[in-house]
Amino acid sequence: DSGVTQTPKHLITATGQRVTLRCSPRSGDLSVYWYQQSLDQGLQFLIQYYNGEERAKGNILERFSAQQFPDLHSELNLSSLELGDSALYFCASSVGVGPNSPLHFGNGTRLTVT
Amino acid sequence: KNQVEQSPQSLIILEGKNCTLQCNYTVSPFSNLRWYKQDTGRGPVSLTIMTFSENTKSNGRYTATLDADTKQSSLHITASQLSDSASYICVVSALTRGSQGNLIFGKGTKLSVKP
Prior knowledge:
A: globular
């Protein structure tokens, strides 16, 4: 068990809808990362937060947004959903932001857009 | 552009056999290289992490090597078990943050261990 909790585990919704994915980082970790993994693809970096502040942004669509709250949990909001947004969304956490910080992953939220 | 390439894309071996997975990278400036194991539908789990000065690191039946000169790494699995069936992901960390963040992920090698 990595200590990173993601909810819900599965989400099925229709095109055009909006969903929110939630992540609770490992106790003591200040940094949260969001990744997207489409079928048979590698993990694509979306965005990183550290102690409530955005630290890095990847190829995140404008329809997607995220935030990290004072209690350090994070939410990823996906709006105007398209079929191509169907994927596994992973959250990871680490203590710091440096390149040597070990990363701990949650078990993901599987989003299916119909 | 920072890239991580893994080979083979997929591999099938018999239980008890050994195998080696390859990772080539063009990431600069280099910080460290990590191997993760990802079971189907689960999050990746760290196996090893190696810095520039380390050329071998073991974790049970998993041994990773790193050649920083040729920018190559390998993951060797000894005496494979059915539970080794998973995707193995090579991740290279850069000292500076780009559009991919600090971590550049390979697409993984899907290993199937058959009885």
